[in-house]
Write a structure and sequence with these properties.
The protein is an alpha/beta fold. The protein has one domain: Rossmann fold, CATH 3.40.50. The protein contains six helices and eight strands, in the order ααβαβαββαββαββ. Strands 1, 2, 3, 4, 5, 6, 7 and 8 form an eight-stranded mixed sheet that branches. The structure holds S-adenosylmethionine (SAM). S-adenosylmethionine binds next to helix 1.
């Protein structure tokens, strides 16, 4: 059952979820890279968009990636920097910024777990285009997007996709992992919620 909700206090969210294991989409993408490049000696580059306090970033660092972690919340970046696993790791660069306007450096992986939907439908197409332009050949995007049967449809500032729109969005890419989830649950604030989530890993062809 999903547990990710744009709650009023991100600090509470970070406390609750930050120590949990990395997301399935990130692990899938990392395993793909490790299979393809078993003797890779150069560190690969990742962007973690909406990193929170680092549940995925720490896994990337642990596996030797160079990571640019971005989040709009200063408390997320502070929490990430304060983690024991991070210490003074020089492979980590961070930015406190909304990701709609930030420059995305060329990278083999753009990971965005449960964060991309929190961009408005007006801003999403430009962000997605910039993500595609930043991907190195053979690079991957691992992310979640929200579906059009989610009960938050209509909330301002959140982007939802019909299945057919996802097909159009990923058209130039190889879809390596796709799981569509629909589930009913009660949010931490006691509200009934219908979740409709696409979990995806897509690859830019070489
Ligand atoms: C649901 S949390 C997910 C955190 C982490 N990726 C994870 O999987 O647990 C979404 C995160 O995205 C950040 N966020 C949401 N919209 C953003 C935006 N437009 N620009 C930058 N960060 C954003 C929030 O501050 C929050 O830390």
């Amino acid at each position: 059952m999903p547990s990710d909700t744009p709650i009023e206090s991100w600090e509470e969210y970070y406390k609750k979820t930050g120590a949990r294991p990395p997301r399935e989409t990130l692990l899938f993408a990392l395993d793909k890279f490790e299979t393809e490049r078993p003797n890779n000696e150069q560190p690969l580059r990742a962007i973690d968009l909406g990193c929170g306090n680092g549940r995925d970033t720490v896994e990337l660092l642990r596996r030797g990636w160079q990571v640019f972690a971005v989040d709009a919340e200063q408390s997320a970046i502070d929490g990430l920097r304060a983690r024991d696993e991070v210490g003074d790791d020089v492979s980590l660069e961070t930015a406190t910024s909304r990701f709609e306007g930030i420059e995305l450096p060329e990278s083999e992986l753009i990971n965005s777990s449960f964060a991309l939907p929190l961009v408005s439908p007006q801003d999403f197409p430009d962000l997605w285009d910039r993500m595609l332009m930043a991907l190195a050949p053979g690079g991957r995007i691992s992310c979640q997007l929200y579906g059009d049967r989610d009960s938050w449809v209509g909330k301002p500032g959140i982007t939802f996709f019909a299945h057919s729109a996802i097909d159009a969005l990923v058209y130039p890419l190889n879809v390596e992992y796709f799981r569509e989830e629909e589930d009913d649950s009660t949010t931490p604030r006691g509200q009934q919620k219908h979740w409709h989530i696409y979990h995806m890993v897509v690859q830019r062809p070489y």
